């Protein structure tokens, strides 16, 4: 019986001929030739570029008529309103800190290059700091700046006791080593939560990171405040970036969801996503997720903020408008709960940044 099972398994493996299986066989030969004991390659050699195939059009289409009997209208989560409520609480705490010990939290932001979306995000963060009484400083570098220039600025902020949080606006120009730069941020001031130790503690049960990355933290806060149950639910995270996708999947697991990650190399992403109770889209591809990707009643959080050039439209102040990863018009008729773009996850990301900066200042000053 055991031998038959083994022969059956061999036949199944041979029949499937998965790409990873072929790669493993190739690696096995390489390992033998190199006299290596362990066949698994260094993980960094497995990294592939995350290149999504965008939809043929940014336009959303109405759902087929045959689905009309199942259509509903989703409840829209007002991320802006919830963020304002959180910021009000932060403002009160900052005032209490200033009155009690004469200090306020300080946030330093480093912006490299002239990406319009990055400039908008930084502008919003600085404005939010001003509104809650957090001191903020911005250091801007040109696209062609050197790595040492950025690292020197980080070193100065690391040593400045009046700065409790440091944020490097991503993405960085390709000639800069993003990992090296993020690693240079002091762990105690890593309010973005991207330091490897923070991510490691987020991943491990029984550990508590100093900071949870702002966008994932904001997503969970939206779910909790909207009364969405996470424990035991099937959740799909679309995208696996170090900024959003990866930490979001880890955080959902810490909240006891059953998590699947859909990425640019996933087979049948539509089918996988259509089985999810909770969908968090963070691929950065406008209207990637169509109505056919969603099951009726799904909870949909759209993290995508894709700047689409509409310079001919005078109503758009900055020459572009932000679109989400989710085709909003189609999803509205299927989802039970949904976030808009803009006005959904974005304001929560900023609110969580303020919250992390306040927490950092409290730790640094021993303020409770």
Describe this structure in words.
- With 368 residues, the protein is α/β, with parallel strands linked by helices.
- Helices cover 40% and strands 13% of the residues.
- The protein is built from twelve helices and eleven strands.
- The strands form three sheets. A six-stranded parallel β-sheet has the order 1-11-8-7-5-6. Strands 3-2-4 form a three-stranded parallel β-sheet, with helices on both faces.
- Helix 4 packs across helix 12 (345-365).
Large-scale geometry: globular
Helical residue percent band: 40-55%
Report mean pLDDT, rounded to a whole number: 87
Note the main sheet: 6 strands, parallel
The strands making up the biggest β-sheet line up spatially as 1-11-8-7-5-6
Instruction: Give the end-to-end Cα distance, rounded to a whole number of Å.
Output: 66 Å
Low-confidence stretches: 1-32, 63-69
Secondary-structure-derived class? alpha/beta
Order of helices and strands: HHEHEHEHEHHHEHEHEEEEHEH
- Estimate what percentage of residues fall within beta strands: 5-15%
Rg for CA atoms: 23 Å
Features:
single chain, 40% helix, three-stranded parallel β-sheet, 368 residues, 11 strands, globular, six-stranded parallel β-sheet, disordered N terminus, alpha/beta
Explain briefly what this protein structure is.
With 368 residues, the chain is α/β, with parallel strands linked by helices.
Helices and strands in order:
Layout: H1 2-16, H2 19-33, E1 75-76, H3 79-101, E2 106-112, H4 116-132, E3 135-141, H5 147-159, E4 165-168, H6 178-183, H7 196-203, H8 214-225, E5 234-238, H9 245-254, E6 258-262, H10 269-273, E7 278-281, E8 299-302, E9 306-309, E10 320-323, H11 328-331, E11 337-338, H12 345-365
Helix pairs in contact: 3-12, 4-12, 8-9, 8-12
């Amino acid at each position: 019986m055991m031998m038959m099972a083994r022969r059956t398994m061999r036949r199944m493996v041979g029949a499937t001929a998965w790409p990873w299986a072929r790669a493993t066989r190739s690696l096995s030969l390489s390992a033998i030739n190199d006299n290596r004991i362990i066949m698994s390659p260094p993980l960094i050699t497995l990294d592939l570029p995350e290149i999504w195939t965008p939809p043929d059009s940014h336009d959303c289409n109405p759902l087929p008529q045959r689905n009309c009997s199942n259509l509903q209208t989703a409840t829209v989560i007002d991320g802006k309103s919830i963020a304002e409520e959180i910021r009000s609480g932060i403002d009160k705490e900052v005032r209490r800190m200033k009155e009690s010990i004469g200090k306020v939290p300080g946030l330093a932001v480093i912006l490299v290059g002239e990406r319009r979306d990055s400039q908008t995000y930084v502008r919003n963060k600085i404005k939010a700091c001003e509104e809650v009484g957090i001191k903020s400083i911005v250091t801007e570098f040109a696209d062609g700046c050197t790595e040492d220039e950025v690292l020197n600025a980080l070193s100065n902020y690391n040593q400045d006791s009046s700065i409790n949080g440091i944020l490097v606006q991503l993405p960085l120009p390709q000639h800069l080593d993003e990992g090296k730069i993020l690693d240079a941020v002091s762990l105690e001031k890593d309010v973005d939560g991207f330091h490897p130790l923070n991510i490691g503690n987020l991943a491990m049960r029984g550990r508590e990171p100093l900071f949870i990355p702002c966008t994932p933290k904001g997503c969970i806060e939206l779910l909790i405040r909207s009364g969405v149950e996470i424990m035991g639910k099937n959740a799909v995270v679309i995208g696996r970036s170090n900024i959003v996708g990866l930490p979001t999947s880890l955080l959902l697991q810490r909240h006891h969801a059953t998590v699947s990650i859909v990425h640019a190399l996933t087979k049948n992403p539509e089918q996988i996503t259509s089985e999810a109770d909770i969908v968090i889209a963070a691929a950065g591809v406008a209207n990637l997720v169509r109505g056919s990707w969603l099951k009726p009643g799904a909870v949909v959080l759209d993290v995508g903020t894709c700047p689409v050039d509409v310079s001919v439209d005078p109503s758009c102040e900055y020459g572009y408008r932000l679109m989400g990863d989710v085709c909003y018009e189609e999803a509205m008729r299927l989802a039970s709960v949904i976030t808009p773009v803009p006005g959904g996850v974005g304001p929560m990301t900023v609110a969580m940044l303020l919250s992390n900066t306040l927490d950092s200042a409290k730790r640094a000053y021993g303020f409770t």
